[in-house]
Every structure is written in C-alpha cells, then in structure tokens.
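hey can u run this one w/ PMT bound, need the structure tokens asap thx
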Amino acid sequence: MLAEKKITVGITGGIAVFKTVQLVSNLKADGAVVNVVMTRSAQEFVKPLTFQVLSGSPVYTELFDPMAGAVQHIELATRPELIVIAPATANVLGKVANGIADDLLTTVIMAATCPVLFCPAMNVNMYNNVVVQRNIAILGKRGFEFVEPGIGRLACGVEGRGRMADLDLIKNKIRNLLHPRQDMEGLTVLVTAGPTVEPIDPIRYITNRSTGKMGYGVASEATLRGAKTVLISGPTILEPPRGVELIKVETATQMYEAVMARFAGVDIVVKTAAVADYRPLQFSNQKIKKQDGSLSLVLTRNPDILAELGRKKEQQILVGFAAETSNLEGYAQQKVKEKNLDLLVANDITQIGAGFGSDTNVVRFVYPDGTVKQMPLMDKTVLASRILDEALALRRKQK
Ligand code: PMT
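ok here u go:
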C-alpha cells in the first residue's frame, strides 16, 4: 500500500511515543521507506535503537552531527514525500507556528517541501490552552495537516482530549495524503453543517448542540477525493477544511437561501446540518425584560430545506440525516420516502459515541426501498468517506 513511499517520522517527547513504535513498525510493514528524527526529550522515553531496528535506518538526533553531511537537515526535509510528527507536543507546535528552528526536527519541518502531518498528544489542559489552540489554528491556516487527539484517560490520570489519535486514523490520513483517491474529480458536492441560530432578541437565540464535526468531515473527505466542495455552515468553532468554498450562515432561512442558490449545479448533497424546525415568530429589537409570571414565546415553522430539495431534485443524489431519540428506523423509513431522498443517515443520539459533539458516530444507512445497513461505531471522518462511497455508488446506478 505504501510501497517505496518515503516518510520521515519526527518524534517529540511525550508518553504517546509508545504508540509511535507501533506506527513505525506498521509503516515499514506496509512497504514505506521510513526515516526517524527524534528530539532530545523523545529519547528520554524510548531509545533511538528501538526505531533504528524497526525502521531499518539510522535514527537522526543531532543538528550538528560531525558524521553527517553539512546540510543533513535540508536533505531530510526534501527527500521524504510526507513528514509525520507523532507525538507532537505543545512545544513543537509552538516552535513551528512561531518560526523557531533550534534543533534538527524543527529545522527539518521548516525546510520541508512535502506535506507535514501533526499528531498532537498532551495533557487536556495544555491542549485546551488558548496559546496551543492559536498555534494549531496558525499551522492549519498555513497548510499543515492534523489528526486531532482523541478523548479518554490520559497518562496523567485525567480524562479529556489529548490522547494521540488511534493508529488506524493516523494511517488512514497518511494514506489519504500520499494516495489521495481522486474518484470525485469533476463532481460538485454541497454539504450543510452545524447548527442554525434563531434570534429572539439582540441577546438570546434558539439553537442546538451540533458542532459541525460530521459535516466538516464530509466536506474534508469530498475535497480530498477531488470534488469541488461547497460547505454551507451554521456557526461553529471549527476551521474549514482546506480547499472548500465556505458559506457562513446563521438562521435556517439563510441556510435555505444559500442552499437553493447553489443546488442546480451540484451532483451530491449531504445535509448533516441540524436545522431548527422553528424560529421565534417575532424578533424583538430590544432586550426582552423580566416580568412577573411566565413568558410565552410564539414560534413559527422554518422552511424544510431537505424536503424542498427532494421536490426540486433532478440529477442530484440527495443524502439526508436524521437525529432521533426513539423509533430510529421507523422515523428514518418515513423521512427517506417523504423527503424523496436517495439515502438517509440515521443516528440515535442517545447511543454512546453517536450524534452531537462526539468524534465518532453510530448510524444506519436507510434507503428508499426499505433496505437498512447498520454501520459500526466509527470516527466521523471514516464515516464521511463511507457516506461518499454510497453516494457515488447510487450515482453510478442512476446512470
Ligand atoms: O455536528 P455534530 O456535532 O458532528 O453532530 C452531528 C449531527 C448529530 C448534527 C448529525 O449527525 C445529524 O444527525 N444531523 C441532522 C440533525 C437533524 O436536524 O435531524 P432532523 O431529523 O431534525 O432533520 C432531518 C434532515 O432534514 C436533516 O438532514 C436536516 O439537515 C434536514 N432539515 C431539517 C429541518 C429543516 N427545517 N430543514 C432541513 O433541511
């Protein structure tokens, strides 16, 4: 799979190094030519000899190595087709984001001509630190790639986000970066993501728990696979995937207008957005003041964007989502037919690892002929790819 692919693995000092041992072994088994660069702190956790044996090549540790050529870091930076930093500490992210190159690994990254993939791993408070998040955002904007850390029990004993991502996810990303499947070239994909926000007065609004992860995952995968991708998104804190055309909206009505304006020219629509079914009938220009007794808010229906697309659709493959808390399959079967969809992705949001906010999802694919496919728990980016596989297969059948 990775035959003869030249990969440099940069290792910084974190306990997740033990996972990198397996990663290097797996990359080598897949046929890659692996070179390892270790920082001084990384060597406190695992000796270079371990990586030398697993990679079958000498491990690079020193910027000023009297035995190596004078421009060793330039050679290490320009030879590989991909550089993977695993684990990536807050320190290395901060240095690279701010242009500091004071050891072999950071000089290699600075001089790199190939994609660089960071796999951060650190304590949850460090990861959430605004400075670290700002550095990640800077690096993302400059084209560096990331596999986000997972949530779980960390080496320091606390629970939270900070564990280096599972090796399967890292390997998947490596494969995508080295062998981007271009099976969506020439297609236009429209994705809606995130929540909508329905204002009550200048201060309050009605919204829901969608973070946009599912939709941003679909947009990212479609772009990686060569599609022209239009992402119509409600408010989220996520960085838009590189290469997508992002249209930001707030309300369901704005999302409706943005979707309708683009629908005619698209081939596949994936509607992951959690659109508010209702909005306040009246927006109050002034802050609504407290009063004695209860307050009633009158709501009115928002347009059902998906149902409208179902009525209008011509060549487009229409993929809807359904978030349910009971009778998942019953509601899903009803929605797929009523809204004239080609596929409905139904998630029972009461299940662990499914629905809003999580990195993973558990869904059923429900088709208009009544067929149902239960998918296992999987990362939202992996699920995104499966959804696109299904949409492509449906498109082929249609022709
Ligand atoms: O964003 P994340 O945190 O990653 O969470 C992902 C998710 C839970 C939001 C996603 O997996 C999901 O289930 N999205 C659909 C949520 C939803 O609004 O479900 P629904 O059953 O209310 O709507 C059904 C479908 O109709 C959806 O495709 C929705 O986009 C669409 N719809 C709904 C209402 C409306 N007025 N217009 C619409 O187009």
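The domain at 188-279+297-398 is CATH 3.40.50.10300 (Rossmann fold). anyway lmk if its weird
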